[in-house]
Amino acid sequence: xxxxxxxxxxxxxxxxxxxxxxxxxxxxxxxxxxxxxxxxxxxxxxxxxxxxxxxxxxxxxxxxxxxxxxxxxxxxxxxxxxxxxxxxxxxxxxxxxxxxxxxxxxxxxxxxxxxxxxxxxxxxxxxxxxxxxxxxxxxxxxxxxx
Length: 146
Fold this sequence. Notes:
By secondary structure, this protein is of the alpha+beta class. It contains two helices and eight strands.
């Protein structure tokens, strides 16, 4: 989660079906990859920016019902959220990927976007810095539609 001057860095994800929504830069950890290295790699791949990890914000765990899951199969999602700082690079689309653009978005404007619930979870962690690293569940499955 990159936050600077009251703005958050969001990535516009475009599915293979052409559907679009805003999310946080990120992705999965590769085999034998350190999670901190995965954060730096994913930010670079999806946005073009070089990043440094500042801290672990927390961990979110939720079951995604089949009806809300992208592939139509229920699964458990465990996500680690990190605070990162952009230290270089330039914004660009993900080469041969599903991230069409990355945009610094004023935090108050996020509420009006069609976005992944991951955005709200990350913002809640970044704004409250919960001692346990856990925030109450966001009461949605899948996308928050606006």
